[in-house]
Amino acid sequence: MLLRRRHVITSLISAAAVAHAARLDAQPFLLRPEDTIGLAPQPLIPPPAPVVPMPPGAPATELPTWRRNAVAVPMNDDRPKIAVVIDDMGVTHPYTGEAIALPGPVTLAWFPFAVSLLDQMQAAAERGHEALLHMPMQAFSNSTAQTGPDPLRIDLPPAVNLARLRAALDAVPNIVGLNNHMGSVATRDVALMDIVARETRDRGMLFLDSVTIPHSVALARAELAGVPAAARDVFIDHMADPSVIRGQLASIEVQARHFGYAIAIGHPRTHTLEALEAWLPTLEAKGFVLWPLAATVALRNNIDLSQRA
């Protein structure tokens, strides 16, 4: 069934991504050397220009970035909400196109170093999907073969981490915010997560903690900084086994019914995409509504999207 849909966006998938077609889904994420050939290192960029304060009494009508880039949904829908985020978009798998072709809205988290990033993101936007930056962060493996280039690291000076974060945010346009890629080391570090939280807040964006380790402090630091934030509830495909994936989808439904919403993260892999393609169209009949991440974060944080900033 997936094969019949590949023609929809095949022309927008880069040759670099297609070259990964032989990779087994069960393998962990690895960047091969050829994945980054021709990619320039992220430059150190200057801080943004100071914001000129509004004059006293001026109306505050400018919406924050995450709200301007959010996919609009009716906020008066009382059904349980399910938000699906697809990580690792743009470079690591041959299935970026199939993820874009999923019924939506879903939220797609894009690597800042992806090849042909803008073309792929445009195709996703035309399908009505929302966009995140998928920010590489230091993992226990301590290897850029898993994180990708220029991850945030606890052993780097704060200025270098901030420059890497800013360069990545600038590389991925029209996003509502970011979530962490890997980060089993980085997301336990308060000082580093405070850098992420402050920059996210200053840019008017939201943050999703992927919760790659149970003791992550990323969500707590984001909330303390005043960032609209949430944490992942379910990993759809922590195992590349169709029966396990189906079980995780059932778990999403249980959590959404119990709490009113659930946020799930999956990846552009064969079994995951096949399962999602079959499952997503069933949600409405089961009494659920598929929501983008930004609306779900607003719900969690009691933010009224009908109000102006």
Please give a structural write-up:
- It is a single chain.
- By secondary structure, the chain is α/β, with parallel strands linked by helices.
- It has a single domain (80-300), classed as Alpha-Beta Barrel (TIM Barrel).
- Helix content is 33%, strand content 14%.
- The chain contains 12 helices and 9 strands.
- Strands 1, 2, 3, 4, 5, 6, 7, 8 and 9 form a 9-stranded parallel β-sheet that branches.
- α7 (158-171) crosses α8 (190-202) and α8 packs across α9.
- The radius of gyration is 19 Å and the shape is globular.
- The relative contact order is 0.18.
- Residues 1-60 have low confidence and may be disordered.
Shape: globular
Count of separate DSSP helical elements = 12
CATH third-tier fold name: TIM Barrel
Return the CATH class. Answer: Alpha Beta
Question: How many E strands?
Answer: 9
- Round the mean pLDDT to the nearest integer and report it: 84
The largest sheet, given as strand count, sense and whether it forms a barrel, is:
9 strands, parallel
Proportion of beta-strand residues: 5-15%
SSE pattern, N- to C-terminal: HHHEHEHEHHEHEHEEHEHEH
Low-confidence stretches at least 5 residues in length (pLDDT < 50)?
Answer: 1-60
End-to-end distance: 44 Å
Features:
single chain; 309 residues; alpha/beta; TIM Barrel; nine-stranded parallel beta sheet; 14% strand; disordered N terminus
Give a concise summary.
This protein has 12 helices and 9 strands.
Fold topology:
Blueprint: H1 2-5, H2 15-18, H3 65-68, E1 81-89, H4 96-100, E2 107-110, H5 117-126, E3 130-137, H6 144-147, H7 158-171, E4 177-182, H8 190-202, E5 206-209, H9 218-224, E6 229-231, E7 234-235, H10 242-259, E8 261-266, H11 270-279, E9 289-290, H12 293-300
Parallel strand pairs: 1-2, 1-8, 1-9, 2-3, 3-4, 4-5, 5-6, 7-8
Helix pairs in contact: 7-8, 8-9, 10-11
